[in-house]
Structure to design on (274 residues):
């Protein structure tokens, strides 16, 4: 058996073991406190088209996780939800959802957890590709093992929480942005903007990339921006990355509240209210 086939066999074996560990863990453990809020919130997004539940995190991870639940006949009626600035409605909705679906609550949680396993497999693929590009195929195998058997990955990939989707989407976005820096082109800029928007829909933490990526661009491409034409082209590509990511972010929210003046918001924070 040649080395290439050995590597492929090793990768398949590690991934299957990873999936097996996550499947067993996801069925053994009861819902965490965060999951009890994310699951009814995700279903509520689908059935009502609003995003007031669990608004401290973007909706994409829980919407993908609860998509299969739409076909199970799960009772998503959460009663009357009275919203107010600073109110966390998900901590009322979680009790309603558990009460309405008590006969099969555990099975619904297990079904929603499958999305985390899919996210983790996507993360493994990104880790393999990036490690191989940097240090070769053997390093990619080591990186895969570290990903698939890392305690943090195994702990969070079995849950209906945004941590693994945030990690994976951020890694994917940065991987493509690295490709853009190495070979600047409109196609890679478009892809980087798309993935940045997806990352923002998993956790707003990735807003930091709006500051980090321009710095990296200047440090990496600065010496190459010797003509006005190149500078204008890079500025246009950077603007497209930012604009497309914001478009994807707003699309994920159904453009609710888009272009709303800050003065119309009731801030809970005293600093922002001033």
């Amino acid at each position: 058996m040649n080395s290439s086939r050995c590597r492929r066999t090793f990768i398949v074996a590690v991934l299957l073991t990873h999936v097996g560990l996550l499947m067993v863990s996801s069925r053994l453990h009861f819902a965490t406190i965060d999951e009890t809020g994310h699951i009814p919130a995700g279903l509520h997004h689908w059935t009502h088209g609003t995003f007031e539940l669990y608004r401290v995190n973007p909706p994409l991870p829980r919407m993908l996780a609860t998509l299969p639940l739409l076909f199970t006949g799960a009772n998503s009626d959460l009663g009357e939800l009275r919203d107010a600035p600073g109110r966390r409605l998900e901590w009322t909705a979680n009790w309603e959802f558990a009460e309405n679906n008590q006969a099969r609550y555990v099975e619904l949680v297990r079904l929603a957890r499958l999305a985390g396993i899919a996210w983790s497999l996507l993360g493994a693929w990104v880790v393999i590709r990036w490690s191989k590009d940097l240090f070769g195929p053997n390093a990619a195998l080591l990186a895969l093992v570290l990903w698939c058997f890392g305690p943090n990955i195994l702990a969070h990939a079995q849950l209906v929480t945004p941590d693994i989707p945030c990690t994976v989407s951020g890694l994917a976005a940065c991987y493509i942005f690295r490709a853009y820096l190495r070979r600047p082109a409109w196609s890679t800029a478009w892809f980087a903007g798309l993935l940045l928007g997806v990352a923002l829909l998993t956790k707003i933490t990735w807003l930091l990339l709006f500051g980090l990526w321009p710095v990296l661009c200047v440090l990496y491409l600065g010496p190459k921006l010797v003509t006005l034409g190149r500078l204008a082209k890079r500025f246009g590509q950077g603007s497209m990355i930012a604009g497309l990511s914001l478009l994807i972010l707003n699309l994920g929210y159904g453009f609710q509240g888009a272009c709303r003046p800050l003065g119309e918001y009731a801030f809970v924070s005293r600093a922002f209210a001033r």
About this structure: The CA atoms of residues 191 and 211 lie 18 Å apart. The chain has two domains: 31-112, 162-274.
